[in-house]
Amino acid sequence: MDEPGTPPDCSMATDICDIRQQIDDIDNTILELINRRLNLAKRIGELKKDSGNQVVDSTRESEILRRLTALNKGPLNPNVLHHIFIDIIAAARAIQASQRVAYLGPEATFTHLAATSHFGYSVTYVPQPSIREIFSEVEKGACDYGVVPVENSVEGSVRHTLDLFFESELCICAERYQPVSYDLLAQQVGLSAIGTVYAHSQALNQCRAWLNQYLPAASLKECSSSAFAVQQAMQEKAAAAIAGGGAAALFGLEAAASKIEDFSRPPTRFLVIGKERVRPSGKDKTSLMFALAHVPGALAGALTPITDEAINLLKIESRPTRHESWSHFFFIDLEGHLEEESIQRAIGRIRPHTLYLKNLGSYPMIGQGV
Ligand SMILES: O=C(O)C(=O)C[C@]1(C(=O)O)C=C[C@@H](O)C=C1
């Protein structure tokens, strides 16, 4: 690495040398600006501490990301923009206070990737063996936030998440859509050097055609988890591991190939759960759960106020309850924030049609791409 102030190696064409000098100047400015930004965030952190406010402000974060995404004219890819700024914001949060995030482990799961793409790399991640334990870690204050799968998870057990909201006082603070795609991780990028591929059976099954085509001679080793597969690839030079797209950065490995799955699948939705309610961001979602009596028209009655208030019903899902006298829970997502009057009026009118109703939280609505 060049010493600070050392000009770049100028043994090559003067054009390249010239451009590298400009890149160095820009990098110096970026570094200075990041540190200026961090010092400002530090001051906000002190003010928040004095006033007893929480460090993470998801609403402010989504405002920043939305504003920059709209401002970006390229060639910076919107996903890359998101990652860069999530990491800058994460560094700011880390300066303000240390944060602990529980997620469904082990490492290298899609939940882990969803957690890192939401919180960046400057928090302490605490893997948990079950979704119930994620809820309890956050409830007892051992972790500040939890990240749980809620829809289409490739790692199963998603149904538990919705059931656990019934027992828990935690709320939804944010949502995150994580692409379900696989990368081949290795210590170096050349495919020709790879003799063994370690992977969880699910990952192996989803990448068979690619492996047959590009690594027909490699020996395929099934592992109990992607985390174990990654560990093997970290230890063996001629080995690779299959893990969720973007995992390379977590383990200091290279992505020797990306998007190696045979069929693309819709992104999986994850929720960030915590204790504090989130203020409006201007484009929000509100999630409710309720149980209905077994009488004709109960569901229609509960949904009519939503239509009357011209609220966009984004999703409705039902699950059998374990409560004897109730048959189903309904989970609905509405466009809008609980602080909006139309949402409050609708909830006020839905409640009398239900046996039980709980507001799971309002949080910034995000696109499925980033
Ligand atoms: O604006 C704030 O409240 C900050 O603390 C700064 C900042 C940021 O880096 O932009 C950091 C953490 C919060 O979650 C939101 C934003």
UniProtKB/TrEMBL annotation:
Site entry (Essential for prephenate dehydratase activity), positions: 268
Entry keyword annotation includes rRNA-binding: no
Gene Ontology terms for molecular function: chorismate mutase activity; prephenate dehydratase activity
Biological processes annotated in GO: chorismate metabolic process; L-phenylalanine biosynthetic process
Keywords noted in UniProt: Amino-acid biosynthesis, Aromatic amino acid biosynthesis, Cytoplasm, Isomerase, Lyase, Multifunctional enzyme, Phenylalanine biosynthesis
Main location: cytoplasm
Catalytic activity line of the entry: chorismate = prephenate; prephenate + H(+) = 3-phenylpyruvate + CO2 + H2O
Pfam family name, one: CM_2
Domain Chorismate mutase: 10-100
ACT domain ranges (all copies): 287-364
GO cellular component, one term: cytoplasm
Functional pathway: Amino-acid biosynthesis; L-phenylalanine biosynthesis; phenylpyruvate from prephenate: step 1/1; Metabolic intermediate biosynthesis; prephenate biosynthesis; prephenate from chorismate: step 1/1
EC number, UniProt record: 4.2.1.51, 5.4.99.5
Domain Prephenate dehydratase: 100-275
Location within or outside the cell: Cytoplasm
Functional note: Catalyzes the Claisen rearrangement of chorismate to prephenate and the decarboxylation/dehydration of prephenate to phenylpyruvate.
Name under which the protein is recorded: Bifunctional chorismate mutase/prephenate dehydratase
The organism's taxonomic lineage, starting at the top: Bacteria, Pseudomonadati, Thermodesulfobacteriota, Desulfobacteria, Desulfobacterales
